[in-house]
Write a structure and sequence with these properties.
With 333 residues, this protein is α/β, with parallel strands linked by helices. It has 10 helices and 16 strands.
């Protein structure tokens, strides 16, 4: 597959990236685990190196993941290799490193500048390619202040371009008016997503970066319908925003039915389920850039191989969307 473009920035990236939430390790939000279990920084580095070797150059993180640890792991792994990578990270949530806890958010100009400098230190770089607002919803006046600050960071050379990680189209339309905005990060998979946001990105020269493209692991086939997830894992912690995928510590029944209904199409031509789920996203639009998470070299290798298979055909996309409840955004809990 050819490289894709980060919207108006013109930055060339691989068709898929690495979602670096899981390699941050354990941290807490609302007194619940917001991580994917313990991590091995050496394995994380090996996985990042494997990704670079396999043609994946885009890494997406946040200062919230592991309260900065994900960024630190990336910085160490990319030492001497920075020029080979395009780094995206996020800001907005306040993290306590001592307790590994997120404690509200702050999007004031002074805080954003401090957060950017802290991310630069952890990432061991002097610029961030894509800097994204991580807070789902902010007021109009707050957003104006945020984008003014981000424009200053662009002019200072600390960031190259910016975007927003949100699924609220009303906010997306506002930030899209800014010339230095290049990307929107949205949840997007066969389980849940919003085609209207993808179409908006197409029409406004924005990249659609797709978080949870494997539905927090459900679309890898690792979990059965009666699998039980530990409360020491974000999928079993009881977050309401994850219930469309994992509810009461088990795969959501409706989501699992959807997976079973399209399994044969996703695994066509010898693809694994994960590779088919990524192929579906590429088949939906040429502005999509899925960022599946990882903790091991093996996971990166499997996901990277999806690029060899390429996107699903238009006929396969249509066949999937004829299955009741499979059009993104239609899961009823």
């Amino acid at each position: 597959m050819k490289q894709r473009v980060l919207g108006r920035s013109g930055i060339q990236v691989s068709p898929m990236g690495l979602g670096c939430w899981a390699i941050g390790g354990q941290f807490y939000m609302d007194n619940k685990i917001d991580g994917y279990g313990q991590t091995d920084d050496k394995e994380s580095a090996k996985a990042i190196h494997a990704a670079l070797d396999l043609g994946i150059n885009f890494l997406d993180s946040s200062d919230a993941y592991g309260i900065g640890h994900s960024e630190e792991a990336i910085g160490k792994a990319l030492e001497g290799k920075r020029e080979n990578a395009v780094i995206a990270t996020k800001f907005g949530f306040i993290g306590n490193e001592a307790t590994k806890t997120l404690q509200g958010y702050n999007v004031s100009p002074a805080y954003i500048e401090r957060a950017c400098d802290a991310s630069l230190r952890r990432l061991r770089t002097d610029y961030i390619d894509l800097y994204q607002l991580h807070v789902w919803e902010v007021g109009i006046s707050e957003l104006d202040s945020v984008t003014d600050t981000l424009d200053r960071l662009v002019s200072k050379g600390k960031i190259r371009t910016y975007g927003w990680s949100t699924d609220l189209l009303s906010g997306i339309k506002l930030i899209a008016e800014k010339k230095n905005c290049s990307a929107i990060q949205q949840e997007y998979s066969i389980v849940k997503g919003d085609d209207e946001i993808v179409h908006f990105c197409e029409e406004n020269n924005l990249a659609s970066i797709n978080r949870s493209p494997l539905a927090m692991g459900l679309l890898t086939g690792k979990y059965k319908k009666d699998s039980k997830i530990s409360q020491d894992d974000v999928r079993g912690a009881g977050f309401s925003w994850a219930e469309h995928v994992f509810k009461d510590g088990k795969p959501n029944g409706e989501a699992y039915k959807k997976l079973e209904a399209v399994r044969d199409i996703l695994t066509s031509k010898g693809r694994t389920l994960a590779q088919g789920a990524l192929a579906w996203i590429w088949g939906k639009s040429n502005v999509t850039i899925p960022i599946p998470g990882f903790k091991t070299v093996k996971q990166v290798e499997e996901n990277a191989k999806a690029m060899e298979f390429g996107p699903l055909t238009a006929e396969q996309i249509q066949e999937i969307e004829m299955v009741p409840g499979t059009v993104p955004g239609t899961v009823t809990l």
